[in-house]
């Protein structure tokens, strides 16, 4: 694109957006069951809402959803790619570590990968599910067509411990599984809350009969809500961990660079994003724990730095980040909406994550890159940058690695290195090699 002095730059557009006054809001719901503690939206329309076509837009307003012709073309390219399906040794499944799951150390974060973007995260006695997808195919037609799971779901909804919090990043079929939501509501009843993007709540109520109004909380970007312990919380029946741990969990909805569609006629009608979580124990001798679930996102060079500034803990950064590393091919279609492994490493650095786990690969074939390539590329770039990489080991003795991938069903108990340790790792990497050059080289190989 050539330089046109009459056109504002993206940075200028963002600044203009931030300062633009908006008329009263009709979309945002009150939250009688939750306390808005920071970044309240008050009574303005979100500035990322477009009145003219009644849709949401990205932080970088120049990034739009792919046109229908490109969407049709990409589906045929994915079909034509005829992906090689890895064997069990190459893409492993582990039996759930029930002992760890039922007796978590409440002061550290523990997570179990359920495939694609579904994580079961445990901290401070809270059980959190991200984008729970348990179905066999991700498409509008659950049993008939669409990408089939490469590996079975490691555990069923009924097998999971009681769930406190479910977050759904956006309405694409590989992230919002309606049957999973129905099952989770059936099993956990009113003890579970769902946090969802703007305009998803009405759609869920239409489709999930048992979902109560108080149970589903709609959020806008940068809005934070405090999720406190339920007074009637039932201790986990097998728990022998530190059951006395208690505190509050703050949930923040964060922007991502993506889009939404559930049927042919609702493109960008619902919002999309990621979620940040801050667990603050009542006992102040224990540290806060912060984790971040990115949902689906493309990379741009200011969004994640803004998340670092506005969300990350000023003292501790982000303890754990769940970042997408797959569905990046082909780049002509996916570059604006899905990070590749190189960009995912850059996101981890931008947000100051001490430990990241890659996801959005190895479960449903929704793109053209080979199924195992995200792991290989991640490994390569981390080796080049001399950052720690670990695969298929529950944890090591010395602390958490900078960026990992885990097996389907694997439970990872974070060791939580000190901030100083992590700073040394990053400093060492930057000293030895020119990070930007490495990232650029890796990206060229990927394209
Ligand atoms: Zn998506
Ligand atoms: Zn996705």
Number of helices: 11
Low-confidence stretches: 1-44, 236-244, 392-398, 418-426, 428-433
Portion of residues in beta strands equals 15-25%
Q: Count all strands and give the number.
A: 18
Strand order of the largest sheet: 1-10-11-12-13-14-15-17-16
Mean pLDDT score? 79
Level-2 CATH architecture: 4-Layer Sandwich
Highest CATH level, the class: Alpha Beta
Ligand species: zinc ion
| Spatial separation of the terminal alpha carbons | 19 Å
CATH topology: Metallo-beta-lactamase, Chain A
- Overall helicity: 10-25%
InterPro entries: Metallo-B-lactamas, RibonucZ/Hydroxyglut_hydro
Protein name: N-acyl phosphatidylethanolamine phospholipase D
Pfam families: Lactamase_B_2
Domain Metallo-beta-lactamase: 127-361
Short description:
Pfam families: Lactamase_B_2 (PF12706). The chain has helices spanning 10-19, 68-81, 98-102, 178-188, 200-207, 303-310, 331-334, 341-350, 373-384, 419-432, 435-446, and strands spanning 35-38, 49-50, 55-56, 110-113, 119-123, 126-130, 165-167, 193-197, 216-219, 224-228, 247-254, 274-281, 289-293, 318-324, 353-359, 389-391, 403-405, 411-413.
Molecular structure report:
With about 450 residues, the chain is an alpha/beta fold. It is built from eleven helices and 18 strands. A hairpin with a 2-residue loop joins strand 5 and strand 6. The structure holds zinc ion (ZN) (2 copies). One zinc ion binds near residues 172, 175, 258 and 296. One zinc ion binds next to loops. It holds the Pfam family Lactamase_B_2. This is N-acyl phosphatidylethanolamine phospholipase D. It comes from Acrasis kona.
